[in-house]
Amino acid sequence: MRILGLDLGSKTLGVSVSDALGMIARPVETIRFESDDYEAACEQVQPYIKEFQVKTAVLGLPKHMNGDVGIRGEISLMFKEKLEALGLEVVLWDERLTTVAAEKILISADVSRKKRKKIIDQMAAVQILQSYLDSKN
Q1: Which three-class secondary structure state does DSSP give residue 99?
Q2: Which has the minimum average pLDDT: 4-8, 32-36, 102-106, 130-134?
Q3: Which residues form the YqgF/RNase H-like domain (predicted)?
């Protein structure tokens, strides 16, 4: 059973998916939408739900370093409800430092700054999903 990994931003949504065994996450796409139009972002997730036949999504939950959930975290909680309305089970996953880790991986792979900007969100989604998968295996 495949699982989606999602990294929600204010204008982008990084999407990743697991393999059929639920062991390895891979990048899929960075969905772009108008600033704070989370309804549109949710609609753009639907084709991936069908394509990969997923029942579960792991959504990054941004927290402050002290563990508090701020405004971005509240937006993720709202987005979780939108995804659940599509019939998905949604697992919230602490995403602190995932973008930093994704950036380091891309830099070590000598990916140009311009290309990193285009794929950083989907790589962060991979980090979120892989962390979740590793905790299960």
Answers
A1: helix
A2: 102-106
A3: 1-102
Nearest 10 degrees: Cα torsion 35, 40, 46, 48: -30
Domain ranges, ordered by start, for the chain = 1-134
Q: Pick from 120, 125, 96: which is nearest to 109 by CA?
A: 120
Alpha-carbon distance of 134 to 127, in angstroms, equals 10
Which of 6, 33, 38, 26 is CA-nearest to residue 125?
6
- What count of Cα atoms within 13 Å lies in the side-chain half-sphere of residue 94? 10
Structure confidence by residue, pLDDT tens digits, 52-100: 999 999 999 987 667 677 788 899 999 999 999 999 999 999 876 666 6
For residue 42, which amino acid is it? C
Contact 6, 13 (CB under 8 A): yes
What is the CATH class of 1-134? Answer: alpha beta
Q: Write down the pTM of the prediction.
A: 0.86
| For residues 33-38, average pLDDT | 95
